[in-house]
Structures are given as structure tokens and as C-alpha cells.
Amino acid sequence: MQAPSVRDHTLAPEGKSTLTIHCAAWIEQEKFWQTEKDLERGDAYKKTKQRFADILIDRVEKALGVNIKDHIEVLEIATPVTYWRYTRNRDGSNMGARPTPKNIKNKLAHYRTPVKNLFLGGHWAEYGGGMPIAVKAAANVSLLILKDFKNQEFEKLRDAMDGGVRS
């Protein structure tokens, strides 16, 4: 679970916030999320993904002891079918490496390659998957490039990304 608007207040209108709940899911679940031929999304698909979202929200409410449902104004639900539809990633994957303890210990998240000046970006280079992680990877690669080639620009971007605050 993440609340990205805590750090970046521009992600939600004043007095509002964002909450993202992530859960491992596989495209084969629930008979391919109750999709029709060629992963076409009909009423059964919509009901299935809503049921899964309700279960996750209930679990978060129970774990945190807070009422979330009464505060939801906009709800977006993504399934592996969603990721497949937009990216055509194999089996609707939203990340290149699973964030397992073994993979984290082996430092699979990385940007540099054996090829000089060739960097990895996007959701394949960092743990977590999805658009926020792809943006994070792109920003970090930008910093690496600037650090190697233009130290003054690196410091400007680094400081801007940190909200102008240096520790």
C-alpha cells in the first residue's frame, strides 16, 4: 500500500489524498478474470475486478482500523488484463523482477548495463512496477547521466527532485 500524495501534494486536490493498494495477481486467476474470447472485457470481468478491489479495501480497513470506503471518490482498478491491454507485457506483468527477498538481496533493481552509457529505464529497471516506478527509474537514470557528464546540472535536478532541500 502506498500514499504517494503524502510526499507530492500535487497528486490530489487540496484536502484530498491518494492511496494505492498493490497485490500480486496472475492473468490466469478466475479464468482469466472472467474475460471473454481474446481477453475481451465484459460485465463478468468488471464484476470480478470490483470484487477483488472490495476484498483488498476490506483487508486494509481491517488492518489499519480506518474506514476507507466512505472516502473514496475515484476508484481505478487494474488487473493483469489491464496491464496486458496497455503494454502487451507477457501475462500482463507490471514489473520485470519480483520484489522477493532473494531478488532484493541480489540487487536486481539496477540502471547501469555492461555497455558504456547504456542505461535501463522504465518499470523493468526498478522494483514495484507501474507508471510511478517507470517515472522513478527515468528520473534516476537522468540523474546518473547528468552526474557523469554535467555535475552542475546534476545538482540542480537532484535538488529540484528533493524539493530544494539538501540534508
Characterization of this structure:
- This protein is mostly helical and 167 residues long.
- It folds into two domains: 1-94, no CATH class; 95-167, no CATH class.
- Helices cover 43% and strands 0% of the residues.
- The chain has six helices and no strands.
- It has helices spanning 29-34, 43-64, 80-87, 101-105, 130-149, 151-161.
- Helix 5 runs antiparallel to helix 6 (151-161).
- It starts with 28 loop residues before the first helix and ends in a 6-residue tail after the last helix.
Q: Which structural class do you get from the secondary structure elements?
A: mainly alpha
Helix content: 40-55%
Number of domains: 2
Shape from CA axes? globular
Reported for the largest beta sheet, the result is: none
What fraction strand? under 5%
Number of strands: 0
What would you report as the Rg, rounded to the nearest angstrom? Answer: 19 Å
* Tally of alpha and pi helices: 6
- Regions with little confidence, pLDDT below 50 for 5+ residues: none
**Please, what is the average pLDDT?**
86
Question: N-to-C SSE series?
Answer: HHHHHH
- N-to-C CA distance: 27 Å
List its salient traits.
167 residues, single chain, 43% helix, 2 domains, mainly alpha
Please give the structural blueprint.
Elements: H1 29-34, H2 43-64, H3 80-87, H4 101-105, H5 130-149, H6 151-161
Helix pairs in contact: 5-6
